[in-house]
Amino acid sequence: MDSQYESKEVKLTVESAAGADAQAGELVEKSFWLKTRKWIRTIGAEELGIERIPEELRTNQRASDLFTIFFSANCNTATLALGFLGPTLFGLGWWDSFCCLLFFNLFGALVPAVVAPWGPKMGLRTMIIPRYSFGWWPAKVLAILNCVNQIGWAMVNAISGASVMYDVGDGKLPLTVCVLIVGLLAVLLGLFGYKVLHFYDRYSWIVMVICFIIVAGFGGKHFVNIPMGSGGIEASSVLSFGTAIIGFEVAWLPVAADYGVYMRSDTKSLTSFSWSYCGWLSSQLFIELLGAAIGTLIANSDPVFADASGIGGLIGACFGAYGSGARNFGKFIEVLLGLSCVAVITTNVYSLGLSVQMVTQKLLVVPRFVWSSIGSVIFLAAAMAGREHLEEVMENFLLICAYWIVPFSTTFICEHYIWRRGYKYDLNAWNDRTKLPHGIAASIAWVIGTVLGLLNMSQHWWVGPIAAGIGDSPYGTDISWILAMFATAIIYIPLRMWEQKKYNNFYVTSLPESS
């Protein structure tokens, strides 16, 4: 944050925390957390949390920063690992993996991209905005779920980076150490907050793109054109892989607006949407396609690839097939690829701290920096515990994200485009429960949509009854996100009309729309 804004930022933070409730005010008066905030400012970290960012604190930040932060955050081995699941876990060939990644990403990237412009327009963090549809208490439940979401993703991302770095040591460097190297570096950057995240992501993607191009170049002639399947099992695999892709995309929605709150409110929505959509789509699509290509190496009969284990081993084998000199160069590339997950873990750590503050007003007085630190310890412990099971952890977590986030995002977006067109929000009501809806309609629709998603879930440890009856796969067919999305919209719209008419607590203040 620029120095000219620092004094205003401190004043805003303390006033917001003190105004949360009497107890928070007493804590501020005791000055413990006030001193903590001053220390945070001294080391150059962002001091503000979920407080609305007023216009006087906005900067001339470019909308293109939304492209670089989302592109960089997805330019990593976790994205590579998602594409890798197509041939290795879901049993798809090259061209059916290609089609799944293309079409599901084209649609899935729209979901977080439509929310990204709301940050500049309203100056509110993403998970605060659901208060205008879910109301005060249900929004807290969503904040808790997002805390779990960010810890889980930080865990997945750390393991994916560590699994590639592990291959560098030929098994001699413990995987636990690899997890710590990736995780601790990401935590260090994530704790500093908004400005540092944008600065790092503005440039880190350049190195990573070069590394992925090198991997593609060395592996190209070894990739295998695994033939496309057919029949009921193929259809089940395509839909289940599609659910994983959608889960990967929609998992960004709960944080999509967090990274534009310091942009000026006159930033055009179409501009910020376009930069965001291109950032998500281009990074995920092309790197996932490379991951699918690497996954086809499991069908390569060359002993170099047959003896390789996991995505890290197969990447190493791409270089090893050219001799020891290329293998040593490949180790250097793998180190950089292992560190690629730093860019995305930083966003997990940052947004986690914000979501914790939303759970209760008593936590608002405690700086985001502190909650991000605590969350970092939790995710590092979880990542070290699950370090040997990347594919299983990733598959389960991706699908679980789709089960609850798809109905949530459907409700969230319906509210905005049907009832809040033109940004009709009373922005002074973000922390005033008396001026927020009761959340009856949103809560009912979300619960029913989530339950339907669970009934359609297809996991190795449990297959929902509806999913089990679709297709020929022994694990059923996962169509959870499709059914949940349509059911949630059909239920929510009439219920919201009833709620608005009955309680008449729909407070709005139109914002100027410049797009």
TrEMBL record:
Any one Pfam family match given in the protein's UniProt record, by short name: Transp_cyt_pur
Entry keyword annotation includes Membrane: yes
Keywords: Membrane, Transmembrane, Transmembrane helix, Transport
Its membrane topology: Multi-pass membrane protein
Transmembrane segments: 66-86, 92-118, 173-197, 203-224, 236-254, 274-297, 304-323, 335-353, 365-385, 397-419, 440-459, 479-495
Main location: membrane
Domain of life per record: Eukaryota
Places the protein is found: Membrane
GO CC aspect terms: plasma membrane
GO MF annotation terms: transmembrane transporter activity
Homology family: Belongs to the purine-cytosine permease (2.A.39) family.
The name this protein goes by in its record: NCS1 nucleoside transporter
Protein source organism: Exophiala bonariae
